[in-house]
Amino acid sequence: MPSEEELFASVDALLNEEPHLPPPAERARLREAAGITQARLATALKTTTQSVKNWENGRSEPKSPRLDAYQRLLNGWAAKYPAPGAVPAAATVPAALAAPTASEVESADAPQSVDVPGAEPARLATRAGVTSRRPAPQKAARPVADPRFPHGPLAVLGGDGSAYGVDGIVLDCPATSVVELVEWTLRESGLGAARLHRNGKDSDPLIVLTAAAAVKLGLPERLEGHEQRRSLRLAEDHPVVKQVVEAKWRLTQRGFGPWARIYRKVQGRERQCVQLAILSWDALDERSWPGVAQMEPADIARVLGIYAQRVITPRGSTAVSGLELMTALRPPTRAVQDPATGNWVPGHNPGSLGAEPMDPAPPEATAEHPVVVDSGWSGGFLNEEAYQWVRDVSLLTDEECTLPYAVGLDLNTAFLAAAARLVVGLSAPDHFRAPTFNPKIPGSWLVDLSHVEVDPRLPSPFTPDGSRPAGPAWYQTHTVAYAQELGYNVAPLEGYLRRETGAYLDPWHDRLKTAYVDTLADLGVTKDLDDAEFLAAMEQHKDVDPAMAAVLAAIKATVKGGIGKLRERPQGKKYQEGERWPALQRPTWRPDIRAAVISKARINMHRKLRNMATMTGLYPLAVLSDCVVYPSPGDSPLDFLPYAASGKPQPGGFRLGPTPGLAKLEGVQSMLWAVDLMEQGYNPARHIKGGDAVLDEGE
Predict the structure, then answer these.
(1) What percent of the chain shows pLDDT beyond 90?
(2) Which of 158, 192, 205, 507 could be 149's S-S partner, Cβ–Cβ 3.0 to 4.6 Å?
(3) What is the mean pLDDT of residues 378-384?
(4) Which of 109, 14, 122, 27 has its CA nearest to residue 70?
(5) Cβ neighbour number for residue 505 with a 10 Å cutoff
(6) Mean pLDDT over residues 106-114, rounded?
(7) pLDDT for the residue numbered 120
(8) HEC readout, 10-71
(9) At what angle are helices 546-565 and 506-522 packed, to 10 degrees?
(10) Residue 134 has pLDDT above 60, yes or no
């Protein structure tokens, strides 16, 4: 039996051994997977490019301390980019090396074919053995600083040259012009963020300019003009714009506005791009970022840094960021090997929307879309929008009128909850005559639902204003499926259906849900609170930490804006009807996906309204978007929500809690006041919510 001293001596000998590097070929693979050139790696390790080449072909090995740094880097890359076919050993990977990414696209998320009624079997054969399964959700770990971006994703630049980063970092920025700022950011700042998906791209560094910093760099403190400030741009002959162009840098088509992107063409695999946000030009909308523009630079960096770590580095409005997050988590392409040449080339990434834009079906488009204008389409359009409904006052009972309060319940990020496990179309729509309805096929159906009977004290589930349909109309799959759920026969006259489907929004939902729940928890609103404690915490959560409250508001705006941006309408005075506007060039211009989210959210709301009526006999006064107003004997939802004898909430109705899809108290008003205004055609839900925007189509 060895002694304790002998065992410790043996262990110490192992600890003192030099780090064991992976084989040379694996070193090269990891570097290429991370998108880093040999020259850039050499710069980071303070050595020569030839030395890196020698390490990767096995001619030589690095020595300490460079060996230790190289080992650390390779370990980090190995955790993020495992070898193809390798089974990750979670128990042996240090938690500190966990990549700050959302769930990767698994084989189960690959697009699946579906059987469309009336189509040829050979064209629509379902692949054998494909099953629908989702990986178990995992709570995201706190992101670890990427060795390529040691100072985080962004910095806020003050007029004195101090650049405030995340976690209290302060950098000295010597730039006196925009061109110098861009070059300093790319070469010296250490700013940026790692990709969110192995097939995606790293986030470009963001520099936020205070008013003083903007003036120091030669920019006007404010942008003035007759247009909305968000659409204003510096003139092409402005000195700063000229300096940028003369230095061989480029601006995107959006020009030099509140969110300016300055870039050069990609050289090799390295991007050269910097995002600027100018606070005094209203880059941070007060509705999405309440109070942030007036904060001190260090506090602004904290707010934006937390948002960048939990969601994505901002690239524009929260609507733009919401759309960018979809693409970052579902990149359109991946590297595939050309069998003819053996070279690696971009290929379609399964589960994504692809790299090319796709025209919608005529009923899914907007009236000004070329697919409508050019075809002379007059067959009607989808009208899948959120609720704006008020119950007719004549349908109020005497008992309801004697109740003293009208209480508003708002569903936490209801549209985000609707995006979970939502199957949408990934391919172009195909037209069918008299198809047999299939609730598993995403698409648009022309069907008559006017025969469906709904209690008049509830809104119709088929129209945004809650009125009963008058005849055939276009509906998204979830709306038609709900008519079947209610026990009615549906016989579509036409359909625009999609053959390839997938849960495109799943990783987007998972990342934003985690960000939302974690941020609420930072404000003291956690899942372990009972309903009374939850309401008390929600009442004061905005006062706990204004910075975190601003992050929460931005996350909510990202959800609504991102969904709305899927159907961005034309903007600007130069637009001519029938022309293609810039948004149509995006693969993410997908009004059918927006319609699917809203349809599912509205149906979810109606299902809860029915269940509440069954369990409690209560009917709503009004519904606006994701807010429902009930008459109540008290000023709290605890006075009318259904609870079991054990004290637990009854399933199926509205429940309180911080999770997306659960409810919170939105407001309380006098019942007599609410009835009086309803007689004047006023929506109490709109008043209680304070005019909340409904799925804004973005900036």
Answers:
(1) 66
(2) 192
(3) 95
(4) 27
(5) 26
(6) 49
(7) 41
(8) HHHHHHHCCCCCCCHHHHHHHHHHCCCCHHHHHHHCCCCHHHHHHHHHCCCCCCCCHHHHHH
(9) 160
(10) no
Residue 354: both structure tokens together: 């692809």
219: its two tokens:
């920019």
Neighbour count for residue 338 (Cβ, 10 Å):
10
| Count of alpha carbons within 13 angstroms of residue 501, beta-carbon side | 24
Q: Which residues contact 346 (CB under 8 A, 6 or more apart)?
A: 333, 334, 335, 336, 355
What whole-number distance in Å separates Cα of residue 627 and Cα of residue 625? 6
Q: What angle do CA 364, 366, 369 make, to 5 degrees?
A: 110
Is residue 130's pLDDT more than 70?
Answer: no
pLDDT band of residue 433 (cuts 50, 70, 90) is very high
How far, in whole angstroms, is CA 295 from its chain's centroid?
Answer: 25
pLDDT cut 70: percent of the chain above it: 85
Question: How many CB atoms sit inside 10 A of residue 484's CB?
Answer: 12
Q: What is the DSSP string of 538-581?
A: HHHHHHH-HHHHHHHHHHHHHHHHHHHHTTPPP-STT--TTSPP
Give the list of residues 6+ apart from residue 683 with CB closer than 8 angstroms, or none. 388, 390, 622, 624
Q: Supply the pLDDT for residue 699.
A: 44
Give me the chain's average pLDDT, please: 86
Query: What is the SS3 assignment for 321?
Result: helix
**508 bridge partner residues:** none
**How confident is the model over 570-628, as pLDDT tens digits?**
887 677 877 899 999 999 999 999 999 999 999 999 999 999 999 999 999 999 999 99
As given in the structure block, the two tokens for residue 592 are 């059918």
Summarize the chain as % helix, strand, coil (round to 5).
35, 15, 50
Pick 79 or 628 by higher pLDDT. 628
> Dihedral through CA 55, CA 61, CA 63, CA 65, nearest 10?
40
H or E element that contains 592: helix 591-616
- Size of the chain, expressed as the number of residues it contains: 699
Q: Which pair of structure tokens corresponds to residue 486?
A: 């209610």
User: By three-state DSSP, how is residue 395 classified?
Assistant: helix
- Which amino acid appears at position 596 of this protein? A
Cα separations (Å) of 439 from 33, 473, 497, 659? 40, 17, 11, 27
Name the pTM for this structure.
0.80
pLDDT band at 7 (very low <50, low <70, confident <90, very high): low
